[in-house]
Specification:
The complex is a heterodimer. Chain A has 21 helices and 2 strands. Chain A is mainly α. Chain A has one domain. In chain B, helix 1 packs antiparallel against helix 2. The radius of gyration of chain B is 24 Å and the shape is flat. The chains are: A mainly alpha, B mainly alpha. At the A-B interface, helix 8, helix 9, helix 17, helix 18 and helix 19 of A face helix 1, strand 2, helix 2, helix 4 and helix 5 of B.
């Protein structure tokens, strides 16, 4: 009951006129960002974070969370009308959304996506509200070793579950962590890793420099290179009557919506997984339990509902570890976490005690943003489709401008703008060789938190690393992390074993 | 791709070694009573980077990663042209920020990109290229009070400051 009271207070905070305006702008921007191929929630949040220094932290966070939400809705628009996902989180939506559009039922696909997103988001909000406070109160007892073990676990999920090339994933993690350690040593204040004695390195490398470099400049280069300017569009015929009848028809996808809503949330909590694999898994499971799986891929309503419910649900799920433990559940929440540090908020379980208005205002805003996103989405589908006609040769230079200006605004140092360019071009070149970039962003955000935890833990144990295994909470977490890191090795051995058996038998 | 994969791994290994060397400027061992030294964390992480590069190289020899099996060109003529025109354009843009300031550089960059790379007409080009710096100025300099560098165009902005502040 106490939670309901807090939630009600939070909803009232979120209903402040400034916050309502920010939520509306946020979801509309998010829908646009999500719909634009080459831009997803993470790009929008990274590029627009510097623009939020204008408003108080709580409102800034509500705004960015609304973008995050809106982008999950928006991804479906281009998946359905263009046949290419507007964001990686909407890849699975193309499987059945595109065939529906080609059959002339783009309206049904778009409405189903919107309704499923709303249901997914709502289910996730309820789960979030139920789980977050108890988790935060458990986490209050965590000391340095426990928090370091949790971070280890976060990185381990990338290795064990990320599905990317393992040495490249590790490289990305280590690189991000080293970049985070540039500047003054947090514990002794000595200058460290000042490359070429350039003074610009003294203040360290702000995570935004890496994040905007990768998700602004690098992403644009990547998109221009990979799409090569070939996009074709399917028209959607829409009217209020068609939308209403599509709403009724979209109920046929209820199974997909239900599966996506719950599965998405729990997959979203894992740092390496998040909305993209969550939506793919939801699609797979829905197809598996369906009575006629053969219809999937040819324009089944459930095939649109499942991934869309899942990606919205996962985006809320990713917020759970970020707010309660200070460990982001996705690259986007990693950037939000970095933002919280800039605003002077200490992420972690204490937030629920010291910043109740911030936390509950944000949670309240999830509910309202979700509703706004549904309304804005349904009301302005034709507008978003029209905006998709915006040529990429206009959008791309605008993103470059926003990235450069945002990169400067974050630290107000030209040195960082150049560094951002280097990271952006570097990220593009490495990404062509399958190096995953998300782990590096997570690492540069967590690095400055992880290092002192490790050093303090080791000081506490006089240099004995066993401290992470011996304590009752950090022990199991560390063991799970180690198992996850070794998971690919187990798979390799099992495959070898099977191959040998097959050869022998 | 195959050649690019090993060259990149080699370059990244060199970077790792440099980072390890640079970390040794501070103590990388355990200092009694103080805990691990300042170089400890970056040193071992950079060592981890180096090991990852060695692993990537082993996968390359065994032809296990997709790029090490691919015969495709790493940067084909389109990719290279794009990188030079777009990447070069952004580099020029940032360099111009030092001379013309952000707002002048935005104008020049947008004209370059929209007119010459995008081949849009002059009316559209000029409409976007002129509106963007104005909106940016109003948002950053005026609303957020984050003053972006003006370079040699600073005198042009003096009347604007007088007007707004």
């Amino acid at each position: 009951m106490e939670i309901l009271g807090l939630l009600l207070d939070g909803v009232f905070i979120a209903l402040d006129p400034l916050n309502i305006m920010l939520m509306l702008i946020g979801v509309a921007l998010g829908l646009f960002i999500g719909a634009m191929p080459g831009l997803g929630s993470v790009n929008g949040v990274a590029i627009l974070l510097p623009a939020t220094f204008l408003v108080p932290p709580a409102s800034a966070m509500i705004f960015l969370a609304a973008i995050y939400y809106g982008a999950m809705y928006g991804g479906a628009i281009s998946s359905i009308t263009l046949g290419i996902p507007g964001a990686s989180t909407a890849v699975a939506t193309t499987f059945d959304g595109r065939p529906l559009a080609l059959k002339g039922r783009a309206d049904l696909a778009l409405v189903t996506a919107a309704v499923a997103s709303f249901v997914g988001g709502s289910v996730a909000n309820v789960l979030f509200t139920a789980f977050a406070p108890p988790l935060a109160s458990v986490a209050l007892d965590f000391g340095d070793p426990e928090i370091f073990a949790l971070m280890l676990l976060a990185f381990a999920t990338f290795v064990g579950l990320g599905g990317d090339d393992i040495p490249k994933t590790l490289f990305s993690i280590f690189f991000g962590l080293v970049m985070a350690s540039v500047g003054l040593d947090i514990m002794t204040g000595e200058p460290r890793l000042i490359f070429g004695d350039i003074t610009g390195f003294m203040h360290g490398i702000n995570f935004l420099v890496l994040a905007i470099g990768i998700y602004g400049i690098g992403e644009m280069l990547w998109t221009i290179d990979s799409t090569r300017g070939n996009l074709t569009m399917t028209e959607a015929v829409l009217s209020i009557r068609r939308i209403l009848s599509a709403c009724r028809e979209s109920i046929k996808g209820w199974k997909g919506t239900a599966i996506g809503s719950f599965l998405g949330f729990f997959v979203g909590i894992l740092p390496a997984a998040g909305a993209t694999p969550g939506s793919l898994m939801a699609y797979g499971v829905t197809k598996m339990v369906s009575k006629n799986p053969k219809e999937f891929g040819k324009g089944h309503v459930g095939g649109v509902a499942a991934p869309e419910a899942a990606n919205n649900s996962a985006s809320t799920g990713a917020m759970l570890p970020m707010l309660t433990l200070g460990i982001p559940g996705s690259p986007t929440t990693a950037i939000l976490l970095g933002g919280m540090v800039i605003w002077g908020l200490q992420p972690g379980p204490l937030l629920f005690q010291t910043q109740t208005e911030f936390v509950w205002g944000l949670i309240g805003s999830f509910y309202i943003s979700n509703l706004f996103a549904l309304i804005v989405n349904l009301a302005f589908i034709p507008l978003f489709i029209w905006m998709l006609r915006m040529p990429f040769t206009v959008l791309a230079p605008m993103i470059f401008v926003l990235s450069v200006v945002g990169g400067y605004a974050a630290t107000q140092d030209m040195h960082d703008v150049w560094l951002m360019l280097i990271f952006g071009v570097g990220a593009y070149l490495l990404r062509k060789l399958d190096y995953p970039v998300a782990p590096a962003v997570l690492a540069i955000v967590l690095g400055p938190i992880a290092e002192p935890k490790l050093r303090q833990s080791l000081l506490f144990s006089s240099g004995d690393p066993m401290i992470f295994l011996e304590r009752p909470i950090s022990g199991p977490i560390t063991i799970i992390a180690i198992i996850l890191i070794l998971l690919p090795l187990f798979k390799l051995i099992r495959d070898k074993f099977k191959a040998r058996k097959a050869a022998a038998g | 791709m195959r050649r690019a994969e090993i060259i990149t791994a080699g370059l990244m290994a060199l970077l790792s070694i440099y980072l390890m060397y640079k970390s040794t400027e501070l103590d990388i061992g355990y200092i009694k009573g103080e805990g691990p030294g300042g170089g400890f964390w970056p040193f071992w992480l950079a060592a981890g980077m180096l090991l990852s590069c060695v692993w990537i190289a082993i996968n390359w020899v065994l032809k296990k990663s997709p790029p090490s099996q691919s015969d495709e060109k790493y940067l084909d003529s389109y990719g290279l042209r794009m990188l030079l025109l777009v990447g070069g354009g952004v580099t020029g843009f940032i360099a111009l920020c030092h001379i013309l300031g952000f707002y002048g550089a935005i104008l020049v960059f947008l004209i370059y990109y929209i007119r010459f790379l995008g081949r849009h007409g002059w009316p559209a080009t000029l409409a976007i290229s002129i509106t963007t710096p104005i909106v940016t100025f109003l948002f950053f300099d005026i609303a957020m009070r984050i003053v972006l560098p003006k370079g040699y165009l600073e005198p042009l902005f003096l009347p604007l400051y007088d007007f707004f502040f």
